[in-house]
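Researcher: Please predict.
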Amino acid sequence: MDAPFRTSWQKSVWEIIEHHVFEHPGTDTLFNQYVTEDPAYDRPAASRIRRSNLRSYIASFKRRPEVLLLAEAPGPRGCRFSGVPITSEEQLLDPEFPIDGRQSSLGTPNREYSAGIFWKNLLGHADRFFVWNTVPFHPHKTGMPMSIRTPTASEIAEFEPVVRALFDILRSRTVVAIGRKAERSLASCGIESTYVRHPSQGGALHFAEGMAAVFSQPGV
């Protein structure tokens, strides 16, 4: 059974995602994990599981989050299988984790380095922020479904209306760009943000310091 929503903002966020994310067909190098399945990696009804996991994330909030975090795109071991930005299946299956979810992949539940660093630093603030990706689908190289590539400028621009819509619904007082791609997307939407280094590729310490500074600000 799908998790119920408590508030109108949760319903509005879900409707935006339903109409502008779930209905997108994806491409040969942009995997829409919410409607597409690869039998080499996904268990039956995997896309439905990932939609349900995302719904559980949105429904987990007891109040409107004060902070909007925008990252770049799903990695092949994180949101690609979990459906929740910067979150792995292994985390969703942990009974102590604040978000409930199920495994959509075959074999051992996936673990993602960036997701581990992300939640290690932000677990205590889980009800205070909402995280989303600039490009909500997994970008990969041609013929290499488990690879990762940088989203193109046109892909980022295509999903800027979703970023803007989420910002308008959440009305978060603080917006954080995790990485330069996210920073440029927010600027293109006319949204002021604080830049924080992405935790991958040696950025773990800078990410931790940046997020600590964000949540230590008065009123955040």
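Model: Strands lie at 30-31, 67-71, 129-133, 138-139, 174-178, 194-196.
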